[in-house]
Amino acid sequence: MLLVTVSAALLAAAAVEQSNDEKLLLAAWIEWGAAHCNVSEIPALNIMFANTVIGGSDKEAVDAVRLRLLEWVKVAHHGDEASACKEFADSIRK
Asked: Exposure string (b/e) for 34-66, b if CB count within 10 Å is 16 or more?
């Protein structure tokens, strides 16, 4: 329970300091991780955050961010999902 509380506090603090574009990119990253990586590593609060941000955003903006994220994974990780999932897991533990 403590981990969920700490995760919630960190996510809320980070969300307040981010622009809408940064929130949408983070939400898309979480969504990508949920679709391609071990979903059990993702706190439920992060999934809810991503769902809320994506659901409340303009469809064209969401599609553009998703495409940008997919291109980044291809370039930064040479299309290697395992490598991208490792980075994803490391990023959500911070």
From this structure: beebeeeebbebbbebbeebbeebeeeebeebb
3, pLDDT greater than 90: no
- Give the C-alpha separation, 66 to 74, whole Å: 12
HEC secondary structure over 13-67: HHHHHCCHHHHHHHHHHHHHHHHHCCHHHCCHHHHHHHHHHHHCCCHHHHHHHHH
In this structure, the chain runs to a length of: 94
Going by C-alpha positions, the residue among 20, 35, 39 that lies closest to residue 92 is 39
Instruction: Determine the Cα–Cα distance for residues 2 and 79; give it in Å rounded to an integer.
Output: 36
Under a CB-based contact definition with an 8 Å cutoff, are residues 40 and 76 in contact? Answer: no
pTM, entire model: 0.77
Residues contacting residue 65 through CB under 8 Å, at least 6 positions apart: 21, 24, 25, 28
